[in-house]
Design brief:
131 residues, single chain, seven-stranded mixed sheet, mainly beta, 1 helix
């Protein structure tokens, strides 16, 4: 139904920046949330940032707040993650995800931080930050 493709990953030194993109194709959702998650070796997948598409409301993990910015482009059906002031602990595979919802905005806010609530996932893109 929906395909998500991440791009923009790579290797940078600490303090550098990267911009990740996630392009959606196929069937378009009317109401949905999109999120960025990351997974480092030996660790669980964790929430990084999310956005309620229709409103543009954004949410961030405490570990990235002030450094990362999530945004979207309606015409291109693309969500972005601008990552600044990167740290070695940001090293991980980054995944974008999408989930349609039919409930209230409050329901979307509750769901947005939890990987288990998302139906669609990209293949991931590697981000490596060296010291």
């Amino acid at each position: 139904q929906v395909q998500l493709v991440e791009s923009g990953g790579g290797s940078v030194q600490a303090g550098g920046s990267l911009r990740l993109s996630c392009a959606a194709s196929g069937r378009t959702f009317s109401n949905y949330i999109m999120g960025w998650f990351r997974q480092a070796p030996g660790k669980e997948r964790e929430f990084v940032a999310g956005i309620i598409w229709s409103l543009g409301s954004t949410y961030y993990a405490d570990s990235v707040k002030g450094r990362f910015t999530i945004s979207r482009d309606n015409d291109k059906k693309t969500v972005y993650l601008q990552m600044n002031s990167l740290k070695p602990e940001d090293t991980a595979v980054y995944y974008c995800a999408a989930d349609p919802y039919s409930g209230s905005v409050f329901s979307a806010v509750v769901r947005i931080r939890h990987a288990g609530q998302y139906d669609y996932w990209g293949q991931g893109t590697q981000v490596t930050v060296s010291s």
